[in-house]
Write a structure and sequence with these properties.
about 210 residues; 6 helices; alpha+beta
Length: about 210
């Protein structure tokens, strides 16, 4: 936590207006965070996620020295609407299982996950351990389905009341929405994902191919 504006102003020998402009600049760069009643804090370094690689969240975070955790929020079954059915290549109205999970790093909430899978292909999914293991590992070990590739998109969104309450951020805080459609070794759709990452904790990076003029 940084000292108060008055203490910083005195220590640095600058007026309060200049200090506030500097703090706003640092905040816009994501280097500090300011919350009413909590003061100003140095922001935690952002975690890089490879946007072009399909890597287990748990394994990727463990490799960076974090302690990942999972809290199962809900498991629900619904008939697939036409758009979802077309994406998963199932019949309209066919039952799907929707799994909601909250992911943490060092006990701090950072990610909301949503997996949608066809019931017919993955019956009894809720009877398995959905908190203590990777969903992709579960699909391979329990159902013999291995994810080989995924098509993903990223877009910035603002946190609503529901997301802010679970992720511990203010309503309107920036989040990164990742939509995903994964495929098995036969190139059949397996699951449709919709994940929300805290914008203050993650940075998505990718590598480009050589430029061709």
């Amino acid at each position: 936590r940084l000292p108060s504006e008055r203490d910083l102003s005195d220590a640095l020998g600058v007026n309060r207006l200049t200090l506030r402009r500097a703090l706003r600049s640092l905040e816009s760069q994501g280097l500090i965070t300011r919350r009413p009643g909590l003061g100003t804090h140095v922001a935690a370094p952002k975690i890089e996620r490879q946007a072009a690689r399909l890597v287990s969240f748990t394994r990727g975070m463990q490799q960076r020295g974090f302690l990942p955790g999972t809290r199962l929020l809900s498991v629900e079954h619904f008939p697939a609407h036409a758009a979802l059915a077309a994406v998963l290549q199932i019949g309209t109205g066919a039952p799907v299982c929707i799994v909601h999970r909250l992911r943490t790093l060092n006990h701090e909430p950072v990610l909301l996950e949503q997996y949608t899978l066809p019931d017919e292909r993955f019956p009894g999914l809720e009877r398995h351990d959905l908190e203590g293991r990777s969903i992709y590992a579960l699909l391979q070990e329990a159902y013999g389905v291995q994810i080989r590739r995924a098509r993903q998109s990223l877009e910035p969104v603002a946190a609503g009341e529901y997301e802010s309450g679970l992720l511990g951020v203010a309503p309107g805080a920036p989040l990164m929405l990742e939509r995903r459609l994964s495929f098995d070794e036969h190139d059949h759709p397996v699951e449709h994902g919709r994940d929300l990452y805290r914008g203050d904790r993650f940075r998505f990076v990718t590598e480009t191919a050589p430029w061709e003029g």
